[in-house]
Amino acid sequence: MTRLRIGTRGSRLALWQANHIAESLAKLHGAETELVRIRTSGDRLQSAPVAQVNEAIGAEGGKGIFIKEIEDALLSGAVDLAVHSMKDVPTETPAGLAFPAITRREDPRDCLISRHALTFHKLPQGARIGTSSLRRQAQLRHHRADLDVVDLRGNVDTRIRKLESGEFDAIVLAMAGVSRLGAKDKVTQIFDEDLMLPAVGQGALGIETRADDAQTSRFVAALDHDETRACITAERALLRELRGGCQVPVGAWGRFRNGELHLEAAVFSAAGSECVRFDETGSPAEAAAIGIRLAQILVDAGADKILHLQGRSIGSP
User: Fold this and answer.
1) pLDDT in tens, 70-105
2) Is 198 among the domain residues?
3) What SS3 class is residue 235?
4) N or C, which end of the chain has less CB nearby within 10 Å?
5) Are 29 and 1 in contact (CB under 8 A)?
6) How far is CA 287 from each of CA 247, 260, 293, rounded to the nearest angstrom?
């Protein structure tokens, strides 16, 4: 078998994820791999808020800025497969590409890292909290309007460094990324879903290939995890139905309970003052339908109005 070229971003977390998949393919198939680092729009424009980067490159709904160039490399044949964090992946896959594997999900929750080991509710009034995610910002404000929640870009190491230098009192990160980088000891608090619903796809890795590359797709498919795929399918169907992206305040978490797929989701206003939240349960075989049904429940309860106003806010100067 020829060497498989894996397209990946160059951050320490992205390289960890790509190496993890490379090692898994080596164990399963004895496959030889090569990592090809690709710089994306999201990497190049680190100083600007994600919403502004979207507008600059024409990304729709806040997604795609961390994977577009990697998908272009796949389509051109420059790489054979790509490893993505599923929370960064648009709900519509480009023609000619496919995801033969979504691997077993890590903890999808968000976590708080604070300078003085204070938990969320013990942070002082006016404490400065950094996160690039509007979803996180909205939920932080929903529970504590007194905090100073500000935009924070950069990879995990950069964000932790800014926290430790005193620029922030606390930061919010994905628990999966912190765990993968061996920094769990820095975590002050893991948010339960009542405080913060995670992003769609958070904690799961997707492996993307060319749809017509049967051999690579077959090799990769051995890493697919059925339960994770069902949960991610439901979450992404919900987001697609809401026409949302990673830069609108939508949180969702699909989990298995007693053999059934339980999906919980919420839509927040940017200020956190408005929230629509519901859940839906059904058979894992109807994962996409569960997501679509829950999206309609949210819309009927007023989520579409919140998203419409939020979309106008993001696009405003």
Assistant:
1) 999 999 999 999 999 999 999 999 999 999 999 999
2) no
3) helix
4) C
5) yes
6) 24, 10, 10
- How far is Cα 43 from Cα 59, in angstroms, rounded to an integer? 14
Tell me whether residue 88 is one of the annotated catalytic residues.
yes
Q: Inform me whether the pLDDT recorded for 312 exceeds 50.
A: no
* Local confidence band at 244 (pLDDT 50, 70, 90 cut-offs): low
Range of the domain at 8: 1-103+204-224
Which is the catalytic residue, given 80, 88, 110, 169? 88
Q: Is it the case that residue 26 has pLDDT exceeding 70?
A: yes
- Residue where the block lists tokens 């059934």: 260
Domain-embedded: residue 82: yes
Helix, strand, or coil here: 304?
A: helix
Considering the domain architecture, whether residues 250 and 280 belong to the same structural domain is answered as yes
In a domain, 199, yes or no: no
Distance CA 293, CA 150 (A): 34
β partners of residue 113: 171
For 137-153, what is each residue's pLDDT tens digit? 999 999 999 999 999 98
